[in-house]
Amino acid sequence: MTTASSLNIPTGDWKIDPVHSTVGFTVRHMMVSKVKGTFTAFEGTIGVAENIEDSKVAVSIDASSITTANEQRDGHLRSADFFNVENHAKITFTSTSITANNSDWFVQGDLSINGVTKPAQLAVEFGGVAAGQAGPTAGFEVATEITRSEFDITFNIPLEGGGVVIGDKIAIAIDVEANHIA
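Now predict its structure.
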């Protein structure tokens, strides 16, 4: 059993610091390159229990905050072809279980995108705790891969000679800095 004490992480509630965190993704484009993007507005909490496996995570992302450094593409991603932000403004993740082996954790939970909820597993690497200006600050690196068609995001354009413009697999990479609040 991995404990908060053994990892030197204070138990209690932690708030994700959006100024020092990044929610990013990568998707294949034209099957030969990749496009990267981020969401710039998000919030979340981590409830750390003494037994890490009893901890909880909840995250909410403003889907309209997507940016890929191309305003035309970003507008299309906000449309009903993709995230349909008019009807599904938030992307959410709520943990259902956590397994831990020292600093390597696997967080299982419910991921909701575009009005569809599916189970997802996040690989989490705990980076440690440092003394922050307002108290302890913890760092985490999170990675997972999802299939966008499972969330009813199926828009695509066939390529001449085979293939499609947009890949179905989305790699997600999240860097989290969280502040202890209680």
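The CA atoms of residues 139 and 177 lie 5 Å apart.
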